[in-house]
Specification:
Radius of gyration: 14 Å
Shape: globular
Number of helices: 6
Strand content: under 5%
Largest sheet: none
Order of helices and strands: HHHHHH
Structural class: mainly alpha
Helix content: over 70%
CATH superfamily: Tetratricopeptide repeat domain
Amino acid sequence: MAIDLKTLGAEHPLVGTNFNNIGGAYDKKGEYDKAIGYYKKSLAIYLKTLGAKHPSVAASYFNIGAAYKAKGDKTKAMAYLLKAKAIYLKMLGAEHPQTKNAQGWIDSLK
């Protein structure tokens, strides 16, 4: 992470990927607040560098939503999962596995 920050800069998509991976590690440990914080850092970088309709942005929304669900906050989980699904739907279509997966998580919150 330190090398990527130094060589690529704080707003490079690979730095966003590093933040996402750190968030995933905290998520697996059950430290959802820390995970969400890192996922949000990743999301901010992706939004700035890749644009709002990129699959990596959708993946960040999905990860944040999943962490909120695990934390028990269904309202926030739903909001982020709906954003992920909207991007997947537009970019990948209704039949794509990522779109269907997002829909499944949304359905599980109802």
